[in-house]
Amino acid sequence: MHLIGGGWADESAWTGRFVDEARARAGGRPTIAVVLWAPTLAEGEAWHADYRDDLAKHDCEVRFVQLAADRRLDASDLVGADGVFVGGGLTPGYHEAVMPAAQAIRELVADGTPYAGFSAGAMIAGDVALLGGWRIGGVEVTQERSNEGLDDVTLAEGIGLVDVVVDVHAAQYGNLGRAVAIVDAELVERTVAIDERTSLVVGEQGLVAAGEGNVYVCTKDGPHVQVAVLGGR
Q1: Can you list the positions of beta strands (E) in 92-134?
Q2: 73 burial type by CB count under 10 A (0-12 exposed, 13-18 middle, 19+ buried)
């Protein structure tokens, strides 16, 4: 799994790893299913060029699956994909639209198909998904712009690809504080917060950071929260 913390830039250093894995699985030029959500199909399609431009640098076929308020992901949308890329936007919208096909995604990943989640796509990837929110018990734990339309920090069942809660835009939006507070409040045992232009690669080698920034791993240590930093490369 490749969990990307958001941020638009030349992402070749880390999306390239995902496409390389898809190419190895395909035995040639891979087909990437790019799953996007927006309130309307037209709004979502306006983002297609940005995603196509980035992924096409790695010589792959990009196949968009555009979801909307009235269009949810179906297992048939992913047939023939050598890699699944779930994009960014409003996390509760992605969660509602993608979860109907969560079992199909888990089966693909278990069979060796790589998954990449960009921002929202990373936040919903875990056993427990972080949907948003900026307060816990009435106390601010991140800035309001990270609320995703929610006041209280909200967790829900996720796709089930990794046993950790994922936060994104860590340094850029101040969301590391939210990741720490979630563990401190004992809502879950472990969180990771990923910087923009950075990915957390979860595989046989454990947790590896790639890209320009850091990944922060937050765990409970007695009365305190311990934060370990994985540097990108």
Answers
A1: 115-118, 128-132
A2: buried
Please state the pTM of the whole predicted model: 0.95
pLDDT tens digits, 185-215: 999 999 999 999 999 999 877 888 988 899 9
Mean pLDDT across 145-155: 97
Specify the number of domains making up the chain: 1
CATH number of domain containing 28: 3.40.50.880
CA 103 – CA 109 distance, rounded (Å): 10
Distances, alpha carbon 27 to alpha carbons 22, 31, 43, 60, 61, in Å: 9, 11, 34, 12, 14
Nearest to 34 by CA among 60, 7, 70, 5: 60
